[in-house]
């Protein structure tokens, strides 16, 4: 199981997600450009000393990430607010990559067209979305539960 962040723009969320990945022994991917430098103090503070304990792969662009992914043969599962299918009903595989979009804009149409599946975390009607770090924790927890990959 792996987590990918498409052009993240809030350093605290990215640091929190990388800390989550470190604790659950899950590789993380950052698809550039990110909206902050890795030296950002908010990013470092949220990730704490866990940033040295997570496998992070940085990809210069969406196209480079897609090239890498297609060579490896991994499925890509997009978590989005615009999917009719619940993340709880999806059947994950141990080699899946869970993709989360920018906090401010999600992902562009070309990314949506390239994914293998789109799922949503259902929330109360009238509310926009969950914090991306909370969504990543929920998604990763369910995917690991299904695949029995959790330590």
Task: Characterise the protein shown here.
With 151 residues, this protein is of the alpha/beta class. Helices cover 36% and strands 17% of the residues. It starts with a strand and ends with a helix.
Counting DSSP E segments of at least 2 residues, the number of strands comes to 6
Major sheet details: 6 strands, parallel
Residues in β-strands, percent: 15-25%
Quaternary assembly: single chain
Helices and strands, in order, run as EHEHEHEEHEH
- Which class do the helix and strand fractions yield? alpha/beta
Flag low-confidence runs: none
Give the C-alpha Rg. Answer: 14 Å
- How far do the termini sit from each other? 12 Å
Mean pLDDT: 91
Tell me roughly what share of residues is in helical segments: 25-40%
How would you write the strand order of the largest sheet?
Answer: 3-2-1-5-4-6
Q: State the helix count.
A: 5
């Amino acid at each position: 199981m792996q987590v990918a962040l498409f052009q993240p723009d809030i350093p605290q969320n990215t640091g929190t997600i990388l800390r989550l990945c470190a604790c659950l022994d899950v590789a993380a991917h950052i698809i550039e450009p990110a909206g902050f430098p890795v030296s950002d103090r908010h990013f470092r503070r949220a990730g704490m000393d866990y940033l040295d304990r997570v496998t992070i792969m940085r990809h210069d662009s969406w196209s480079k990430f897609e090239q890498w992914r297609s060579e490896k043969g991994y499925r890509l599962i997009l978590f989005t607010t615009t999917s009719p299918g619940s993340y709880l009903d999806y059947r994950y595989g141990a080699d899946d990559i869970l993709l989360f979009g920018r906090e401010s804009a999600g992902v562009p149409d070309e990314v949506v067209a390239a994914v293998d599946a789109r799922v949503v975390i259902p929330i109360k009607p009238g509310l926009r979305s969950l914090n991306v770090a909370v969504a990543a924790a929920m998604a990763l927890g369910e995917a690991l539960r299904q695949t029995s990959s959790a330590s």
